[in-house]
Amino acid sequence: MSETTDKNKLSLEGIEQMPLERFAENAYLNYSMNVIRDRALPSVSDGMKPVQRRIIYAMAKLGIGPKAKHVKSARTVGEVLGKYHPHGDSACYEAMVLMAQPFSYRYPLVDGQGNWGDVEDPKSFAAMRYTESRLSIYSDILLQDLNTGCVDFIPNFDGTAEEPKALPARLPNILLNGTTGIAVGMATDIPPHNLTEVANAAVYLLENPEASVNDLMQFVQGPDYPCGAEIITPKSDLLKMYETGKGIVRQRAVYKVEKEGIVVSALPFQVSGGQVEKQIADLMAKKKLPMVSDLINASDHNNPCRLIIVPRSNRIDCDELMNHLFAVTDLESTYRVNLNILGLDGKPQVKNLKQILSEWLVFRQQTVTKRLSKRLDNVERRLHLLEGLLVVFLNLDEVIRIIREEENPKAKLIERFNLTEAQVEYILETKLRQLARLEEMKIKEEQEKLLAEKKKLESLLGSQARLKTFIKKEILADVKLYGDERRCPVVERSEAVAFSEDDLMPSTPVTVILSKMGWVRQASEYNADAEHMTYRAGDGFKDKASGRSNQQAVFITNLGRAYSVDIRELPSARGQGEPLSSKVNLQQGEFAEYVIIGQSNDYFLLASDKAYGFICKYEDILTRLKGGRALVSLDADAKLFAPIKLSDKSSDLLAVASRQGKLLIYKAEDLPVLPRGKGNKLISIAGAKLDMGIDGVAAVAVLPEGSSIIIHCGKRILNLSASEITERLSVRTKRGDTLPRGFQKVDCIEVVKAKTNSSEEDPAILEFSLE
Questions:
Q1: Which of the pair, 585 or 637, is modelled with greater confidence?
Q2: Which of 411, 431, 408, 429 is nearest to 419 (CA)?
Q3: pLDDT of 621
């Protein structure tokens, strides 16, 4: 047993041992950090992911610059995979394609030739063996200072070559082109911005380090996508987004109304015309877009985006139609913003606008300082060598003799002319014919130029203020060379609201009919003759209401409850209908008394014979519950009058007749507007008389402005003109005027509206008595 244990101990010598839990944790952490740093997240320095940086650098090394001839893309991909990025070729090529698509990148880095996809299908690009590419002019922003010693180089994956740790970006490319990426446990979504705006903000921050994000937003209005659609995110939300590094950007298509119809000329970022066309066509096929008759995709080479939406008629409000389409299609799209970036310390962090520009300015100052220092070293080295050349020119014969005759000319030249080893090596490497052509004046002229340059470089490196001014001038020079106008205007727009289902349904005139036994149906005409329709045995007409087929009918019961039913769900009047109880859940002993139809902003008078009532808005009467809602609180023996629609709540009058022969007329405004309840007294009647049934309300009417009334008392009638009504105008708390003898038993009050030039329905008796 002991021998076996000793053998096991010997076999494990030199092998690291750790718990499986710790090993798995370390392995996953290493993998996560590798994905975050080397794959998914861009760096604040040059705004590029490693694969993008390697593609640009490989093309520069191959000499495929903006002025070079286009080269097969497969050549570039092979160079990148073989030397710098040992991953999949398709992923590498797709990254290259993205940098070449002008509809994906605000400032493309690759100039492609061939099929590189289009807005309709960005992934329809040809294989890399067919396409050709070279660097775009904008790539100079990233590569111009590459060979000036301003960036650090690191070994590639196998140590056979070197690659830059970061490209010397002359502008904050991290914000200009933006990027998206998904790492382990984090993601990034950086929108593109306008070069001129971002550069001006960087210059302002360079001069005012204490500036706030709000100060910077006087330059940076918001993202600037390559598509040209409107950005409708409120400025307060944009400010919050740039302050926190997270938020949402909302984009809306640009349109104008022309003779052909509504012409959409710009779509949101990464939204294709075919995609929108399919969405609208699906809505039309499902009859959810009845106001559109046709959709034409007239996009071509000259007009990359031209969608024509043809309204069904000229009466349709095009702005309201587009507002609906914005809400239900991709004509309005939302984009997440998450400014998660690798900082100069290599750590991922969500940064605000000021942090991003501040870190890039630090990086820029570092690269410029390195560039100037490297140039200063080169100038000093050249001056040193020129001093040696000047000695050679003045003593050319002696130098030639030493070189020809001495066994160790290098040491002899150092000793004879007091030269340095570097000077002597340069002299010995120089061809004799070049030495012969050297002229003292040329050497001194070059020395003067280099001395002036040295003085300028030392001045820049010795003063932080001068260095900042120098950087500012370089940024503004690049703005002048590469800057352009903003493509996506930032505008304030109201929120898009879709039409309701009722608005989208075909609207036709209908009449809803209620029978005495509670059966309901709809006739497809306005104010149908319901009294002469056929009914079931023992049944007959009770009430009706006219409206449109896309509205709701409200049934008010003997218990003062309200039930709403979609008119389109009611059976046709060709039959005898269906019981209301099949549509709603009526209570025990409950039956429908009246039916009303109105618009949401209509007002109705609700009153009972116990002299109580109130005004209610139609939208407050509606309910989605099959069990209905309590509307009017009624006493045990109280009866409800038919609801009466008001023409104008501010100018209408109420006429109330009591059973004791009193008539009271007052403004409708005196009665409260309530969503439900018992209401207030319509006329002053003693409570004891109401309880005993001696007195109460016999009839009630709503009088539009300028109307007259006819009071029906059995076979006798009493006419009151508009002027007489005005003379009788009182207040709600009064008992009213006593009607003449013989006219005190009021059956109903008929309202005769004043004649107008507008076309209206025929005058009708809008009020009903209980008999």
A1: 585
A2: 411
A3: 93
For the record, the structure tokens of 401 come out as: 């003799």
Q: How far apart are the C-alpha atoms of 338 and 206, rounded to whole Å?
A: 24
The two three-digit tokens of residue 323, written as one number: 């507002």
Residue 528's pLDDT is 87
Domain containing residue 317: 254-330
Closest to 745 measured CA to CA, from 694, 720, 710, 711:
711
Same domain, 590 and 612: no
Beta-bridged to residue 654, according to DSSP, are: 666, 702
Residue 353 lies in a domain: no
| 709's tokens | 């009334």
680 C-beta neighbours (distance < 10 Å), count: 15
- Coil/strand/helix, residue 457: helix
| Reported confidence tier of residue 10, pLDDT bands at 50, 70, 90 | low
- State the sign of the Cα–Cα–Cα–Cα dihedral 741, 745, 751, 752: negative
Please report whether residue 342 resides in a domain: no
* Tokens coding 576: 């005898």
**Active site amino acids:** 130
Residue where the block lists tokens 């008992």:
735
The tokens describing 527, both together, are 């104010």
Whether residues 397 and 515 fall in one domain = no
Tell me if 234 sits within 8 A of 492, measured CB to CB.
Answer: yes
Q: Strand 653-658 relative to strand 697-703: parallel, antiparallel, unpaired?
A: antiparallel
Task: Give the position of tokens 């009050």.
Answer: 749
Q: Residue 705: which CATH number?
A: 2.120.10.90
Number of domains in the chain: 5
**Which DSSP helix (H) or strand (E) runs through 363?**
helix 353-394
CA distance 470 to 484: 23
* Long-range CB contacts (within 8 A, 24+) of 469-477: 470/368, 471/206, 471/361, 471/364, 471/365, 471/368, 472/203, 472/206, 472/207, 474/170, 474/368, 475/170, 475/171, 475/199, 475/202, 475/203, 475/206, 476/199, 476/203
The pTM score is 0.71
Compute the 3-state secondary structure of the chain and give helix, strand, coil in percent, each to the nearest 5: 35, 20, 40
